[in-house]
Amino acid sequence: MTLKKISSGGLLALAALTVGLLVADGAFAQTAAPAAAAAPAAAAAPKLDTGDTAWMLTSTALVLMMTIPGLGLFYAGMVRKKNVLATVMQSFAITCLVTVLWMIIGYSLAFTDGSANAYLGSFSKLFLHGVGAETTNALAATIPETVFIMFQMTFAIITPALICGAFAERMKFSAMMWFMALWLILVYCPIAHWVWGGGFLGSAGVLDFAGGTVVHINAGVAGLMCALVLGKRKGYGTVSMAPYNLVYAYIGAALLWVGWFGFNAGSAVASNALAGAAMINTQVATAAAALAWMFAEWIVTKKPSVLGIVSGAVAGLVAVTPASGFVNPTGALIVGIVAGIGCYFAAVHMKKALGYDDSLDAFGVHGVGGIIGALLTGVLADAAVNPAGKDGSLMTQVYGVGVTLIYTAIMTLIILFVVKAVIGLRPSEQGEEEGLDITLHGETVQ
């Protein structure tokens, strides 16, 4: 039988495979050896560990690589030639902007204790006051606090950068800078604190190993709000908006994949068995999602595309992020398959049906993929991999997803309308027609 003869039956087969894996995963979870379980707590207080520190320094560099050059090239390859430089400029400028804001205020708001600790940190470490060579954060007691600050900074950098995919080719650079600065402080830092910094979502048992809610749902929903408020690109649906250079997108996706090992395995905050579990889960889910997207596209359109398989890989990376340190490899395989199929239909068919212009599928991949991963974490968490997963539940994950969706949507809309009222969001129609490279930056790609 050729793929041209496969229709809905092929999709049903993929669904049947997923159900079968769910059953198999349940059996695996009951019999798996606790090889990756956390070691018993030592009687003595932990001290700085050179192995942990070396791994976290490496992980930090890998995550920074995800934004520059990974995300920059991935997004730049998918826009039109006249907007390539403006697109890479966004990733680079956001890296610089967030670095400074994180040092001044972001880290303190997200990862210190305050009088309203369930909701926000304090101002006690503004400008990194009190951070020294030997200080540590209780969340990462075996590495220097400076390394923990840097690692979390890279997460704070890539999250707003992801949003740019939703409004690509149609936001003024000045508006983008103001929006990202306000969004980091008012949206990212509070949610990071709620989940990871001692806030109410983490205390409620919401599982998010490396950023399903904090990074991907957060960025995806914000991106959707941006797409809706800014409206469609000029000529959307009537003129060709084919990607400029899919080789750029391929290279960017490859850098994202490699960098993601720092993102997920680094979130163990130690060089240990849990980091190893997160690493293999990341690889398995990513490959499964790439294949699932490719086959779904192949069945529907009769052709597997480069853009499709790399988009599927990113969808798998997104979905396994919250689950990577809680599921076993069979669970990661399920996450990848579901994410590949789900994000394909969200990014391609749902967007078309609803008529919004999410330029580079920030919501379709990161928002939807993050939701899929967060919910499946509650279903597939395996205490043999991580004892913290024993208390996970689907309803708790639904709660975490819901809170993130609502808060991010409302706050992002408020920020957008404030920036729109003060300086405006979009360039002129003529400037957009000419391209943001020459209009906003005075440069062009030859």
What report would you give on this structure?
This protein has a single domain (47-441), classed as Ammonium transporter fold (Orthogonal Bundle), CATH 1.10.3430. The chain has helices spanning 8-31, 50-76, 84-111, 145-163, 173-196, 200-203, 212-230, 246-265, 273-301, 306-323, 329-354, 362-380, 394-422, 429-434, 436-441. The chain is globular. With 446 residues, the chain is mainly alpha-helical. Mean pLDDT is 91; it is low at 1-43.
Summarize the structure.
It is globular and about 65 Å long.
Q: If you average the pLDDT, what whole number results? A: 91
Q: Looking at this structure, what is the CATH superfamily?
A: Ammonium transporter AmtB like domains
* CATH architecture label name: Orthogonal Bundle
The assigned structural class equals mainly alpha
What's the CATH class, please? Answer: Mainly Alpha
Unreliable segments of 5+ consecutive residues: 1-43
Helix content: 55-70%
List strands and helices in order, with pairings.
Blueprint: H1 8-31, H2 50-76, H3 84-111, H4 145-163, H5 173-196, H6 200-203, H7 212-230, H8 246-265, H9 273-301, H10 306-323, H11 329-354, H12 362-380, H13 394-422, H14 429-434, H15 436-441
Helix pairs in contact: 1-11, 2-3, 2-4, 2-8, 3-4, 3-5, 4-5, 4-7, 5-7, 5-13, 7-12, 7-13, 8-9, 8-10, 9-10, 9-11, 10-11, 10-12, 11-12, 12-13
Can you tag this structure with a few keywords?
single chain, 446 residues, mainly alpha, Ammonium transporter fold, 67% helix, 0% strand, globular
